[in-house]
Structure to design on (541 residues):
């Protein structure tokens, strides 16, 4: 459904001296994989591994330096905004920052209705009420502003907005990493329920392999812009092939590990 | 909150004086009477008369009209031209934005007073010429502010979210950028209003602004400057009026910014 073929993205920093070369940052190097319909596809990597760049490329919000991104056989990169309407309808994104991803000057009902308004989909009022209920918010939430909600509630608003145009794919970029541990599980469960309910394909990005294991069935591991391992999440978790993945798995704190005296220092050592 | 109230009261007084002057003034502000020259404050003339025997209170009231008129037109020109230019420079194609910026720098580098003198020479010295000149000279400050704050808004995740929702450039500028920079623009309007009032006074003082016999606070200063040592009252009265007007608009702008920012709502409820 979503296919990446040798995708690279190079960011060029501004010159530090007038004659020196411009520093280049390779956010992604020659990444290829395919996400099949109905999958719950996890992307794991530490910060700076290119996860967010990947999300932007898949969502058509950024252009790759090389390679192609296709959605349902249609090319995503190199197209104008007007030509991307198929993607805007079928693929929606939930962003990481629950504060920054909602316009502080818009009422919640306008935020949720934005994809409908932008894509001229009729029946907005009823749809907004439906969505508020689906994500577990009260009907009067629509009249209020984002700052009147907690982080968890704001992620629910983001989810409602993403589901508004009835997409087939939901891309979640670290949707719980900015939240309190106590509400993470709630949002993750809500996300999983909604993915089931609406039969969505999920692309879930996280730095935390244990969260991905909880939500996804397939996982891709990124390191410094390169794809190091891809496969069934249980298989990767139980018998990681790449040394970096092994390190990631070992870095997950477990009760047994803590009891047998494994400390943070042991985890740092390769 | 206190700023808002003090600013609103000062601005309200000026507006009130200007409005009343349409219906009633103690005397005809342009009536010259040699017998009444340079009288001190009295029951009939509350602030006395100037060297032509004109009533100071009446001149002040009608002068308030000129002040507001100039402020509204000058700031209106600056905000309505400068804000869209700035947003366009931030959101539009890079090369076009670059051209807008350079043109902006050009106007900014041009001395405002020289611009007003040129305008006066070309179109004749009048209140209208003065306020258009002030407006044009103020455009760059609006454009710069609008561009800088629009760039900030455009880098947020909610703009990214709007793009993935299917919004295109112009819609994002109108729906997200403008509402989010409106607070800053309003503050800039209020501050610029104060500056425009001051500039009009300065231009009228130089004879490039409001022409006699129309009363203006700047001209009241000019006409009485030789009497500074003998009758300081004649300069203090319009001087204080100008100072209070500038202060009022500045405080009002400050107060409005706090008022219009929904993110500060909680802080306001507490404080």
């Amino acid at each position: 459904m979503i296919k990446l073929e040798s995708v690279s993205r190079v960011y060029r920093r501004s010159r530090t001296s007038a004659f020196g070369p411009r520093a280049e940052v390779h956010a992604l190097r020659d990444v290829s994989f395919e996400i099949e319909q109905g999958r719950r596809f996890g992307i794991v990597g530490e910060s700076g591994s290119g996860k967010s760049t990947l999300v932007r490329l898949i969502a058509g919000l950024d252009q790759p330096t090389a390679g192609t991104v296709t959605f349902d056989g249609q090319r995503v990169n190199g197209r104008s905004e007007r030509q991307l309407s198929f993607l805007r309808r079928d693929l929606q994104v939930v962003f990481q920052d629950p504060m920054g991803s909602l316009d502080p000057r818009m009422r919640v009902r306008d935020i949720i209705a934005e994809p409908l308004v932008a894509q001229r989909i009729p029946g907005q009022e009823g749809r907004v009420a439906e969505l508020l209920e689906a994500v577990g918010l009260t009907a009067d939430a629509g009249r209020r502003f984002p700052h009147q909600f907690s982080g968890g509630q704001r992620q629910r608003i983001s989810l409602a907005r993403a589901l508004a145009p009835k997409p087939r794919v939901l891309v979640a970029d670290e949707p719980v990493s900015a939240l309190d541990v106590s509400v993470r599980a709630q949002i993750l469960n809500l996300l999983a329920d909604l993915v089931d309910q609406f039969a969505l394909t999920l692309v879930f990005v996280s730095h935390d392999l244990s969260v991905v294991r909880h939500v996804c069935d397939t996982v891709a591991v990124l390191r410094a812009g390169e794809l190091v391992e891809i496969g069934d999440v249980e298989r990767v978790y139980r018998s990681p092939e790449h040394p970096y993945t092994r390190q990631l798995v070992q870095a997950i704190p477990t009760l047994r590990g803590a009891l047998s005296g494994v400390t943070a220092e042991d985890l740092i050592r390769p | 909150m206190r700023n808002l109230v003090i600013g609103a009261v000062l601005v309200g007084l000026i507006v009130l004086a200007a409005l009343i002057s349409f219906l009633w003034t103690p005397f005809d502000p342009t009536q010259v009477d040699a017998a009444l020259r340079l009288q001190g404050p009295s029951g009939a003339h509350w602030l006395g008369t100037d060297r032509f025997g004109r009533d100071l209170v009446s001149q002040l009231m009608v002068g308030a009209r000129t002040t507001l008129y100039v402020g509204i037109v000058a700031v209106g020109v600056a905000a309505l031209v400068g804000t869209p230019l700035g947003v366009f420079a931030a959101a539009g194609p890079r090369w076009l934005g670059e051209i807008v910026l350079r043109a902006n720098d050009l106007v900014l580098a041009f001395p405002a007073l020289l611009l007003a003198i040129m305008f006066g020479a070309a179109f004749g010295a009048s209140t209208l010429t003065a306020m258009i000149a002030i407006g044009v000279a103020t455009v760059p400050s609006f454009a710069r502010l609008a561009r800088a704050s629009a760039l900030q808004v455009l880098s947020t995740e909610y703009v990214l979210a709007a793009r993935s929702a299917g919004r295109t450039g112009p819609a994002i500028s109108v729906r997200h950028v403008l509402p989010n920079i409106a607070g800053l623009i309003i503050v800039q309007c209020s501050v610029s209003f104060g500056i425009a009032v001051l500039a009009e006074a300065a231009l009228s003082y130089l004879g490039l602004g409001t022409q006699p016999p129309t009363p203006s606070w700047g001209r009241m200063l000019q006409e009485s400057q030789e009497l500074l040592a003998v009758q300081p009252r004649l300069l203090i009265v319009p001087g204080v009026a100008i100072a209070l007007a500038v202060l009022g608009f500045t405080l009002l702008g400050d107060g409005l910014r706090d008022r219009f920012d929904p993110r500060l709502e909680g802080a306001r409820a507490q404080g």
About this structure: Chain B has ten helices and no strands. The interface with chain A takes residues 156-158, 160-169, 171, 175-176, 179-180, 262-263, 265-266 of chain B (CB under 8 Å). Residues 2-23+38-265 of chain B form a domain with the MetI-like fold fold (CATH 1.10.3720.10).
